[in-house]
Amino acid sequence: MTQVRTRFAPSPTGFIHLGNIRSALYPWAFARATKGVFVLRIEDTDVERSSQEAVDVIVEGMRWLGLGHDEGPFYQMQRMDRYKEVLSNMRSQGLVYPCYMSTAELDALRERQMAAKEKPRYDGTWRPEDGKVLPPVPEGVLPVLRFRTPKGGSVVWDDKVKGRIEISNDELDDLVVARPDGTPTYNFCVVVDDIDMKITHVIRGDDHVNNTPRQIHVFRALGQEPPVYAHLPTVLNEQGEKMSKRHGAKPVTQYRDEGYLADAVVNYLARLGWSHGDDEIFSREQLVEWFDLDHLGRSAGQFDEAKLRWVNAQHMKRCDNAELAGLVAEQLARIGITAEADGRLAALCALFKDRCSTTVELADWLSIYFRDVQPTDEDRAAHLGDAVRPALASLAQRLERLAAWDTASIAQALKDTLAEFKLKMPQLAVPVRVAVCGRAQTPSVDAVLSLFDKKSAIERLRRV
């Protein structure tokens, strides 16, 4: 059985957003699910708009999401000699021909066709045919090279997403495969690349559907069967428009900076066009185990940041606390707090992570342990009045006398203080939270206090 080989082939003309990266996730997952090979190819023939900076962002985004490639990155601009070699062979076989029609002549042809309510297309003026006399070659004009598209019949493929697609060859004109300066065009380069890289499955956005019949013809002209195609529906933004930089899409790496977990983003993106029954939350390993091309959705997926946050929250609950501590330490550093990703930070993550959707939120909670906090005036007025101060002072004394600074000992000190002042737990716990943590809602107050340094917790109680 032929080994599966897939590819992701972005153009480095700007940052990569979630809509783009889904076109990397699915071929990556399919290659991993089938023990195949995942190839990264950079389609950088748009020299004016391509940049190394954009390539770096693509690679960084894929690295963060764990979408490692097995081969590449290959750069089309470094393969020009190969393309020109194939073009030369095709020209010698009569598969391509020079066309001297100028841009002005093409424009005039299109205007005539549109006036006659015909589909604008090249009319084959320079296509050699038996018994046909070609126009005289104009002086000083460099021709384009055009591919001889088969006449009559149709091109058909079974798309793994869209089903059977059939395009009449009469709908297709002769594709330009090389510009006047000899530079090969996109649709030609893609085919040569896919042949040379032995790509078996092309999984890409459905904006490429119109390119596919032309590419299939070039494959067959070169004596190769085309790969299996799966054209993915568009990813829409929250306003229902195609996700794009123009419509407010963010770079993939911004989600990292905003505190999303890579596995959560992979989980969310996978469900934005593929499903495994009703499973909403799954690990990367489960995705690889389950992924196939038979359960790709046919309708556009709509991005929903609230849903992404929910998925992220579920992954945070499942996340190993030591791993989470490393990520939170990075977020704390962003707000000027140096914290070791040690056992204490892991314990803090374990205590607070269930109430957070991102590592940014978690770092905000945990900041109370690393820098001084002050209650708001509203919280101070509501919870730290004269009536509760004696109880807080008594609790501080009990805490100071504790031989062991742990949850059980702190819980007993709280109970003894409640009994002394005939209070219910909320009447004491909320003021303690406000005094020590600067906020009225936290996890269990004894667990929260146990992770503070004993001295600083007592000092915060006493300064009320």
Automatic annotation (TrEMBL):
Keywords (A to Z) from UniProt: Aminoacyl-tRNA synthetase, ATP-binding, Cytoplasm, Ligase, Nucleotide-binding, Protein biosynthesis
Q: What class of enzyme is it?
A: ligase
Gene Ontology terms: biological process: glutamyl-tRNA aminoacylation
Annotated Glutamyl/glutaminyl-tRNA synthetase class Ib catalytic domain residues: 3-310
Question: What terms describe the molecular function in GO for this protein?
Answer: ATP binding; glutamate-tRNA ligase activity; tRNA binding; zinc ion binding
Q: What does this chain do?
A: Catalyzes the attachment of glutamate to tRNA(Glu) in a two-step reaction: glutamate is first activated by ATP to form Glu-AMP and then transferred to the acceptor end of tRNA(Glu).
**Protein name (Swiss-Prot/TrEMBL):** Glutamate--tRNA ligase
The gene designation is gltX
